[in-house]
Design brief:
The complex is a heterodimer of chains A (about 325) and B (about 325). By secondary structure, chain A is an all-alpha fold. Chain A is built from 19 helices and no strands. Chain B is globular, with a radius of gyration of 28 Å. The chains are: A mainly alpha (about 325), B mainly alpha (about 325).
Chain lengths: ~325, ~325
Amino acid sequence: MTTYEETERNAASPLEAPRQGRRGKSGKKREGQAAAEWSWGRWVVYLILVAGVILFIAPFAGLVSASFQNIDEIFSVSPHWIPHHPTTTGYRQFLNLGHLSTAQRGQGTGDWRWFANSAFVATSVTVLQTFFNALAAYVFAKRKFPGRNAIFMVFLATMMVPGQVTLIPNYIITKHIPLFGGNDIFGNGGHGWLDSYWGLIMPGTVSAFGIFLLRQYMMSIPDELLDAARIDGANEFRIFWKVVLPLCTPALAASAIFTFQAAWEDFLWPLIIISSPDRYTAPLGLALFVVRNQTSWSLLFAGSVISTLPMVLIFAIFQRRFIQGIALTGMKG
Amino acid sequence: MATTGAVPAGAKTRSKPAGAKRPRPRRGVRITLFRARREWSAYLFLAPGLIIFSVFTVAALIFAFYLTFHEWSAIQPYKPYVGLDNYKDMIHDKDYRQSVINTVYYTGGSVPLGMLVGLGLALLLNQPIKFRGSFRTLYYLPVVTPLVAASILWKWLYNGDYGLFNYYLLKAHAIDQPLLWLSSQNLAMPSVILMTVWMSSGFSMVVYLAGLQSIPDELYEAAKIDGAGPFARLRNITLPLLRPTTLFLLVIGIIGSFQVFTQIFIMTHGGPVDKTTTMVYFIYEAAFKFYEFGYASTLAFGLFALLFVVTLVQLRLYRRADL
């Protein structure tokens, strides 16, 4: 488990470390020796790596290229890696934007709102979960109060249970949330949080695993720091907000990124509770589109590219945090 | 909160020694209450998380367990108690057994392969080479691709008439006629496995890289002085020291792959002839196609039990090998 202090010590992610090290003494030595030993072997390494990258990336390249092709070109005998007649029809049709001919509409259209829904839901889940997790983690790490250990044990004990066990009861619970979706105070009569943003967001706003990780991280913040703030007259929330949270930025960022990624690509839960196309999330819309319009490949490719893009962007921007996060989630034992 | 309400009224009359001890637990209760009141803000902090957790995890778990003893159809108002019938049905359910076999097949294929590819990539990338960061990024890209998008993409690659696989394999004369990847009984599961390996090896690679970098250079230096070649060093230093990493990936990988659903839903729908119906897909169908919530809950507990045992065995084996 990486702790606050460790992260402070080597601020760069574990994988960045050797890059720094290479400039340092030991790194240089290692490089020199390796170069002598791997003079021809190095080329083999490059060769394998490049060949591997081509294999790994070719599907993506094909996807992006095909998303700009019309259906005739997609179905041509030999695959075109570079579109001969680039077109954005697939995108427009899938987002249901711009002027579409009747024939195109007949092929089925997607909806730009699916992506807006996904963005809204994933952002809400991430913000709420990070906040709630941090609150709970802080209390478990730094406060002493009756019942703390018992409650924490319950949180820990549920981490082993796979999500599918609570899937079915949660469907029923979501349906019977009182006073929502036409339900009376006892939760009967309506559809509750089914088919609503509430249902998509709320069950995901707390994670035992996230609380556990953040707690481990917060444990290593020295108590003296908090006491000093207390003596200065800060109230408990202020201590949490102004002292604890800033110190946990690496852990918070890592957990937020993973939460967002998971929320963005969550599929089973939306599939179960959402029924109106207006509220589809991007993965759900795409998946059901495959089922309904088996052959509208140009639209499917466009939709796949759009739903992949935010993840790739986030990864590109926060690459370091991503990799730090993987190290954080238990690599150090 | 162990001492809450510990003093029953009867204790006063029963015996004298008990009477002498009486003040202590009462004081305990009072102190507990006092401390609880003093730390009220802690409960306030905990409240939002705890409420949601209680409803969607604790209550849901208890409810799921309750469901397993009932014939709970989502479309019928009458939901009778059936005792252990659901469990008996599960044990004798041939389709469920098939789904377990399929899931084990999937796991046995995808987890070790993904780890192996990841380890290979990590070893290569751990060399002092140029563009290491770019290589790492490119290999990691499939991991961040949403599963639904990746499944659609691979469904296309596997397409019998227009897919890239058939095109290039035919061109290379590796096959004489187009293969029906996803609709052939023997090829469907390997196809899904291959796609999963593509998706998951980037993750193993990054974790293995982190593991590799925590191995001290001195060990390699010492081994070199002792005359160990590259392969001896790999076998005797690198691999043993990566054991914790391997165990971590194995446990995480198996837990994850037992829950496979999205790929199956999009690429094969469990077919052909249920050859790719995995446990979660089977549970999904039982619950939301046939609306047998009680039975589906029982099946979900079956999955839980299986995962629990598998994880336990792995940790046990690991510990024993460690001694």
